Amino acid sequence: MDEEYDAIVLGTGLKECILSGMLSVSGKKVLHVDRNKYYGGESASITPLEELFTRFGAPPPDESYGRGRDWNVDLIPKFLMANGSLVKLLIHTGVTRYLEFKSVEGSYVYKGGKISKVPVDQKEALASDLMGMFEKRRFRNFLIYVQDIREDDPKSWKDIDPNTCTMQQVYEKFGLDKNTQDFTGHALALYRDDEYLNEPAIQTIRRIKLYSDSLARYGKSPYLYPMYGLGELPQGFARLSAIYGGTYMLDKPIDEIVMENGQVVGVRSGEEVAKCKQVYCDPSYVPNKVKKTGQVIRCICLMDHPIANTRDALSTQIIIPQKQVGRKSDIYVSLVSYTHQVAAKGWFIAMVSTTVETDNPEAEIKPGLDLLGPVRQKFVSVSDYYEPTDDGLKSQIFISASYDATTHFETTCLDVLDIFRRGTGEDFDFSKVKLDLGDEEQ
């Protein structure tokens, strides 16, 4: 360990593993250390099933659950957008060689007590039961406008400049009602609250395009999920980092981040000190440099049936926009199953999550739990949400935020790309990645 590194990464949560891979690809000498014996940190996948029951203090599972080792349960499940930044990163870095993905079968939104498929093109808009006949036409015109926009061609903007108009103004221009605005902002653009309404419309338009481009790749939904669970992702990026010369150490306690004149110079474990210019880490390694800004409740549910009204989908995402249930933040429901090699045959794993707003978090996720039908076993956790107190430029310690309640990876990627930009002073250059790591399938 007594060497000098450009960067030391602490923790093998998904964000840290992605950063380690990106830094290695960018030519940095990286040491990656975790106090745990396993990859994934708080975003790990738990196997066998008995370990999950033990972790939550439940009596062991009976024989009806099948073999324990057939289960891989994500503590923080999230889906990948098929055309999103994480998939681009996986393809550009060759990590896809170590992973196999399956598309998620459904994408639904909750309105008035029931769920409906998220309409994303003109045909679906006209068939959707989310809107009346006249509203469908208005929404269809809005979708055509979004699809036709070219950011570098002002002629395509019609008479609405998306860079100066707010999203609220664009909705009003097309006469879209509050319900339509609701599912557009939350189920298509994947915003977690309504702050976006007052931002420039171009940001929301980009997000809707990402949703429809992702949908176009596989057809049933815009989401992908890795076989054997998300635990495969950190290991894929760890391999990538190793190919580019990164060094990994698991089960290594971190006793001190060594500072001189307010700037990091190394990391100490026992008597050993590894020198470095920068540290990248999750909030648990630097409690004095993060602030708690909220809490997230997650409920893992084991079931022996799909969710009703999803056409018996073996995997799906349902978003409950906050206004539909009188809240400030959305509730997320995700479902994966035995087809992803994460559960025994015939079994399903659902997750309901949201940002905590009251002192009774379990009551807050009830609208999501009510959609699931009978649940055989559930595990509830409430975790604190931490954010760094500064940008890290002075100390050269760059800290990720905790994982939010969303069931997709877009916010995770934005955080990673932002940390990389702060740490290196430049945007990640995807073209730096050597694609000759093997016979890469594009």
What does this structure look like?
This protein is of the alpha/beta class. The chain has three domains: 4-43 and 231-291 and 387-428, FAD/NAD(P)-binding domain; 56-105 and 292-385, Guanine Nucleotide Dissociation Inhibitor, domain 2, CATH 3.30.519; 116-218, Guanine Nucleotide Dissociation Inhibitor, domain 1 (Orthogonal Bundle), CATH 1.10.405. It contains twelve helices and 19 strands. It has helices at 14-25, 49-55, 85-93, 122-127, 133-148, 167-173, 178-188, 201-218, 232-243, 361-364, 366-372, 410-424; strands spanning 4-10, 30-33, 45-46, 73-74, 80-81, 101-103, 106-111, 114-117, 223-226, 247-249, 256-260, 263-269, 272-281, 290-303, 316-320, 331-337, 348-355, 377-388, 397-399. Strands 1, 2, 10, 11, 12, 13 and 19 form a seven-stranded mixed beta sheet that branches. A seven-stranded mixed beta sheet has the order 8-7-15-16-17-14-18, with helices on both faces. A three-stranded antiparallel beta sheet has the order 5-9-6. Strand 7 and strand 8 form a beta hairpin. Helix 1 (14-25) runs parallel beside helix 9 (232-243) and helix 1 crosses helix 12 (410-424). The longest helix has 18 residues, at 201-218. It is globular, with a radius of gyration of 22 Å. The two termini are 38 Å apart.
* Tally of distinct domains: 3
**How many angstroms does the end-to-end distance come to?**
38 Å
- Strand residue percentage: 15-25%
- Classified by CATH, the class of the largest domain is Alpha Beta
Number of DSSP strand runs: 19
The share of residues in helices is: 25-40%
Level-2 CATH architecture of the largest domain? 2-Layer Sandwich
- Kindly provide the radius of gyration, computed on alpha-carbon positions and rounded to a whole number of angstroms: 22 Å
CATH fold node name of the largest domain: Guanine Nucleotide Dissociation Inhibitor, domain 2
How would you classify the helix and strand content by structural class?
A: alpha/beta
Question: What is the approximate shape?
Answer: globular
Our count of helices gives 12
What low-confidence regions span 5 or more consecutive residues with pLDDT below 50?
435-442
CATH H level of the largest domain: which superfamily?
Guanine Nucleotide Dissociation Inhibitor, domain 2
Largest sheet report: 7 strands, mixed
Instruction: Look at the structure and give the mean pLDDT.
Output: 92
